[in-house]
Design brief:
By secondary structure, the protein is an alpha+beta fold. It contains 2 helices and 4 strands; from the N terminus they run αββββα.
């Protein structure tokens, strides 16, 4: 991360991290959906540790759940000290995106193929988070 990414404390500005999280999530979602996806919600953002200026940030994005037109993507962020090679986890969050057609209307997305027990567990957890989001939107 570069000096222009710094906040007043000399660490990477959280808004910059969120923008990069959004890009990583969109890339994973669009690869799965085979087309344009737009961000609907960024949820459960954890800022566990700051990213230092001069660190290299690595973003790992994985589609964890798909609905008819929506996708949930888990993003993990890691910061590496380029002098020592030490890497540490700094952020996690879930991003909900919606696949859209040329007119900006929601369109169906392919199912998520879960091959391992871990993938099936993450899918079920994602389904539960999606249900929770729906309840919150409806005021319950």
């Amino acid at each position: 991360m570069m000096p222009g990414d710094a906040n007043i404390l000399g660490k990477v500005f959280g808004g910059r991290v969120l923008a990069l999280i959004d890009k990583a999530a969109a890339t994973a979602a669009m690869r799965h959906a085979g087309g344009v996806c737009v961000t609907a919600q960024i949820d459960r953002v954890t800022f566990a540790q700051p990213i230092e200026i001069g660190n290299m940030a690595r973003f790992v994005a994985e589609v964890t759940y798909v609905g008819r037109s929506s996708l949930e993507v888990r993003v993990e962020v890691f910061a590496m000290n380029l002098n020592s090679g030490e890497e540490r986890a700094t952020n996690t969050c879930y991003v909900t995106l919606v696949a859209v057609d040329e007119e900006g209307r929601p369109r169906p997305v392919p199912r998520l193929e879960c091959e391992t027990a871990d993938e099936r567990a993450r899918y079920e957890e994602g389904r539960q988070r999606m249900e929770e989001r729906r309840r919150r939107r409806k005021g319950g």
